[in-house]
Design a protein that fits this description.
Length: 243
């Protein structure tokens, strides 16, 4: 499918998507490119990122891959430095990457796996905000979208590890939105994609028929629409398309 060059509302904008190698991240990256943005694709799987980049180029869009493991010390700082040298601003930041630890009782949570999830889902989020805030402030229309989960606000048995990390994730983004509301143009939105056909969902619900839940493209479509709206910072929503 080729890109419609007559309908590119994000033309000239730079967007960074974490976890862009597959699922919601990949679909969002391709939708952003179709809307005219130059998309920086980050993730751990270089080959998967290259596949997404190739799809974007084949459709007529533009993208750059930036393989990085968010748990690596200084990885995010190096990425921000590289971005600042090339573009000197960031218009859109989509924080999508997350790790789902094993679903187990709180008493049985594996500390090593929990620590990795905390690093990716929480500490990396703070590092992304800290390192990209200066670039976001140089944009005429800076937006941050954080992808959350229902279990962040509605705790569920055996989801304690993941739910705790996403609850902390939401608090960081909400505080950031309040802290920047009156002193910058940065606008923050927290979006719960709801049940979506992803690899993470398949791990959590191995017996579920994939076709019974919406594809990532539905979420990506809503994110593009939201990014084009004049939403108030601190905005929250869930993506629940009509049946």
């Amino acid at each position: 499918m080729s890109i419609d060059v007559t309908n590119q509302p994000f033309d000239g904008e730079i967007a960074l998507v974490t976890g862009a190698s597959r699922g919601i991240g990949a679909a969002t990256a391709m939708a952003l490119a179709a809307a005219g943005a130059h998309v920086v694709l980050t993730g751990r799987d270089t080959k998967a990122l290259e596949t997404v980049e190739e799809q974007i180029y084949r459709a007529g869009g533009s993208a750059t891959i930036a393989p990085v493991d968010l748990v690596e010390p200084d990885g995010i700082a190096r990425l921000a430095t590289a971005l600042s040298h090339r573009w000197r601003k960031l218009d859109i930041l989509v924080i999508n990457a997350a790790i789902l630890p094993e679903l187990t009782s709180v008493a049985d949570i594996d500390q090593k796996a929990f620590n990795k999830a905390l690093t990716t889902n929480v500490l990396a989020t703070q590092a992304l905000i800290a390192n990209f805030d200066p670039l976001l402030r140089k944009s005429a229309n800076p937006r941050v979208i954080g992808m959350t989960s229902t279990v962040a606000a509605e705790p569920r048995a055996f989801w304690g590890a993941y739910g705790a990390t996403k609850a902390a994730f939401e608090v960081l983004l909400e505080c950031y939105s309040q802290e920047t509301a009156n002193i910058s143009k940065v606008r923050v939105a927290i979006v719960n994609p709801g049940a979506t056909r992803t690899a993470m969902r398949a791990r959590a619900y191995p017996g579920e028929a994939p076709e019974s839940v919406k594809p990532p493209e539905v979420v990506a479509e809503r994110l593009i629409a939201l990014l084009g709206e004049s939403f108030i910072t601190g905005h929250r929503e869930s993506v629940n398309p009509p049946r």
